[in-house]
Each structure stands twice: as C-alpha cells, then as structure tokens.
Amino acid sequence: GNKANNIGDFDLVRIYSPGFNTAMYNVAFNDASRYCIKIINNAVNFYGYNLTGASCNTAFFHMNLVASANTTNVGFFGTQIDNSGEAGFIIDSSASGNGNFFIKGLETEALNNLNTHKAVIRYIPTTGDNGLNVSIADVFAYKDDNPAQAGQAVIEVAAGTGADPIIIWQQVIPSGYDHVFKHVDASVTSSAREFCYVRG
C-alpha cells in the first residue's frame, strides 16, 4: 500500500459477504491508510498463518461483526506487527456475534510510535450474554521508548454494556507496557458472563 498517495481512509484488504472461508499464508501487509485487514460479516471462517504488518495507520486487523452475526471462527497463527495505530488487533463484536477468536504466537515492536497507541489487542464485547471465546497465547509485546500514551495494555477489554469474554493466555510477555490485562468497563450488565480465565 502507498498511504501517502491514498485520498481518504482505505483498507489494504476488506472482506465481507454473507459467509465465506478464507486462509492467508505468508503475506506481508504494509502502509495502509486505515486497516491492513478488515472483516465485516455475519458468518466468518478466516485464518491467517505467518502474516506480518507494518505502518497500518489505524490497526493491523479490525473485525466489525454486523447485527446478524451468528458464527465466527477467526484465527491468527504466527503474526508479527510493527508501528500500527491505536491497537494491533481491534475485535469488535459489540453489535452481535459468537464463536471463537484465536491468537497464537504474536510479536509486536514499537506499536506506540503513534501517540494514539493504547493496546496490542482490544476486544469490544457483545451486548448481552453471548460473546466470542477469545484465546490468546504466546505473545511478546515490545513497547519501545515512547511514553506519550499512558495506561497502555497488551490486552484491553473496552468499555460497553456487554458480556466479558473468556480469555485464556499463556506466555504473555510485556516489555514496557503499564498493564498486561486492562478492563475499562465499569458497567457490565448483571446478566452477562462475567468471568475471565487466566492460565500461565
């Protein structure tokens, strides 16, 4: 991508349809004026293996499930991201959605070169009782030396009125981050699944 010559906000890859199965192997994404990969859908099976991303202006990956979302299975295995916006991954199932989201093997460097950087992985949970089962393992997050944004976290659950995810992780190593896990929601609904499982 050549974000200097793009007029407006564009994604390098955007995938949306009533349902699909997609896998990407050994792809390098660079210089997106918004997201390197964006998914908008209601039935998803997407898997990325050995992907790299750099200078994705807003985030490396953004998933925004529509209100009719019903089945979601998304997995990233062996991912490396540099200098990419507010968060490396933004997982938004606030409108709807259930299923599974996996991140296995993630290395980041200098994501905070942009002063807006707040988290490596941000999860915006589903309203009500349903939500994604989020599994995160083997993460090394290197913050670099830019302290401009306070309260940065490797994993952040964003504010909202939805269910907490189930998060399982092993071997999450933060270098320079204020938090490994940060939950910024003070008003989770009483009927929601309110638990988080941490291992390792």
Helix-residue proportion: under 10%
**Strand residue content:** over 45%
- Which word captures the global form? globular
Give the CA-CA distance, first to last residue. 38 Å
Query: Could you name the ranges where pLDDT drops below 50 across 5 or more consecutive residues?
Result: 187-194
The number of helices is 0
Mean pLDDT score: 78
What's the SSE pattern? EEEEEEEEEEEEEEE
Class of secondary structure makeup: mainly beta
- Count of beta strands: 15
Give the oligomeric state of the chains in this entry, treating copies of one chain as homo and distinct chains as hetero. single chain
Radius of gyration over alpha carbons?
16 Å
Main pleated-sheet profile: 8 strands, parallel
Provide a descriptive summary of the structure in words.
The structure is a single chain. With 200 residues, the chain is mainly beta. It is built from no helices and 15 strands. It has strands spanning 13-15, 20-25, 28-32, 35-39, 43-56, 59-64, 71-82, 87-92, 99-109, 119-124, 132-142, 153-157, 166-168, 172-175, 179-183. The strands form two sheets. Strands 2, 3, 5, 7, 9, 11, 13 and 14 form an eight-stranded parallel β-sheet that branches. Strands 1-4-6-8-10-12-15 form a seven-stranded parallel β-sheet, with no helix packed on it. The protein is globular and about 40 Å long. Mean pLDDT is 78; it is low at 187-194.
